[in-house]
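Researcher: If convenient, please comment on what follows.
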Amino acid sequence: MYAVEQASSPVAVTDAIRVAQAAAGAMLAGWLTERVLDTGLHVVGVGPFAGLVGAWLGSTLWGWGGWDVGPSLGGFAVLPALAGAFLVCAVLKLVSVGMAGPRW
């Protein structure tokens, strides 16, 4: 089978849309969490990066715990992504506080 036929199949398009929705949801979760915690790192893309890493980390921890996924939007689990993004942003906040040095 040719690559063009494989890439334009409806299954491949559906999978690509599902991945794009999951990535957009993870980046939104990271952006919201970064705004709430204010990590102190003023670098463009910290929020979306925290969301993508948090989605992976949260789903991994959720899988180890054997917990129910909870609510999902478009096949994307919301609670593991938010928990992972919160964990990543908390670590980034600790790093930024440590980089600031002593305050006395």
The chain has one domain: 3-100. The beta strands are 72-73, 76-77. The mean pLDDT is 82.
